[in-house]
Amino acid sequence: VDITEDDKEYVIKTELPEIKKEDVKVAVENGLLTIVGERKFEKEENKKYHRVERAYGRFVRSFVLPDGADAEKVNAEFKDGVLKVHLPKSEKTKPKQIEVKVA
């Protein structure tokens, strides 16, 4: 998981190789963002496995939403095995520039 921030949003980027979109759920509740999924082990017939090091099964990761995140506008995209969850910043937390006038 990588978490980045710019002036507009926070982004949580998670690599989920060989996991189908329908096997991943993203939920926001009570200031907590939760990613739940499952990587299913599909044993191929007529193959002898010498080693299996990749993790299989159900997983859950939870993150506390940053104070400036707008929980109502959270959205996610899943492409090429990468889940990106976008947490837009609320208008009140975005930086503003104020012009200083000299008298």
Spell out the key features of this protein.
about 45% strand; three-stranded antiparallel beta sheet; 7 strands
Question: In words, what does this structure look like?
Answer:
The protein is an all-beta fold. Helices cover 0% and strands 44% of the residues. The protein has a 4-stranded antiparallel beta sheet with strand order 1-2-7-6, with no helix packed on it. Strands 3-4-5 form a 3-stranded antiparallel beta sheet, with no helix packed on it. β3 and β4 (32-39) form a beta hairpin.
Task: Tell me briefly what this model is.
The protein has strands at 2-5, 9-15, 24-29, 32-39, 57-64, 75-79, 82-88.
Task: Output mean pLDDT.
Answer: 88
Radius of gyration: 19 Å
Q: How many DSSP-defined strands?
A: 7
Per DSSP, the total helix count is 0
Uncertain ranges? none
Strand order of the largest sheet: 1-2-7-6
Largest sheet composition = 4 strands, antiparallel
Overall geometry comes to elongated
Task: Output the structural class.
Answer: mainly beta
- Strand residue percentage: 35-45%
Order of helices and strands: EEEEEEE
